[in-house]
Amino acid sequence: MPTAAERQAVAFLATVALLGGGVRLLQAVTFERALAAAEAPAAEDAISAQLEAVDSARRTKASSRTRTASAALAAPIDPDVATEQELDQLPRVGPALARRIVANRDSFGPFGSLEELQRVRGIGPALAAGLAPHVTFSSGFRPLHGESRQRRAP
Questions:
Q1: Dist. CA 61–CA 112, nearest whole Å
Q2: Are 71 and 89 in contact (CB under 8 A)?
Q3: Of 42, 51, 112, 145, which is most buried by a Cβ count within 10 Å?
Q4: Domain with 140 in it: what CATH number?
Q5: pLDDT number for residue 122
Q6: b/e map of 33-67 (b: 16 or more CB within 10 Å)?
Q7: What sections of 75-94 are H helices per DSSP?
Q8: DSSP label at 122?
């Protein structure tokens, strides 16, 4: 006679097996639909049009990025309040680093200085020195008499 724990274990394994089979079935149906759509002649034209649109968008973003980089030099950006799009305009800061800056600021509070900005993974002393003329800190933590905030891992 199985114990209660053994019955629970068997029930759990049966549930996992059923869920796995369901996922496989769903993947097979999705694959069949995608295959049928790809075999249609119109689908090839649609895919080509989408690829051209993506290439065009990439070229447009690259050209606008060089224009916005020069515009970023005119007005410093405040990382304590800037959006991801504004941070993305800084030199050597891409979309991924901009997202990490915003996430770190939301989790640990405003930076207040270049030294505190370096707590973001991907910003070291060299990048911070390169960003110095392009950023300003108008709000947030202000250390008193040389004290600094404890560094926390992001």
A1: 30
A2: yes
A3: 112
A4: 1.10.150.320
A5: 93
A6: eeeeeeeeeeeeeeeeeeeeeeeeeeeeeeeeeee
A7: 84-88
A8: T
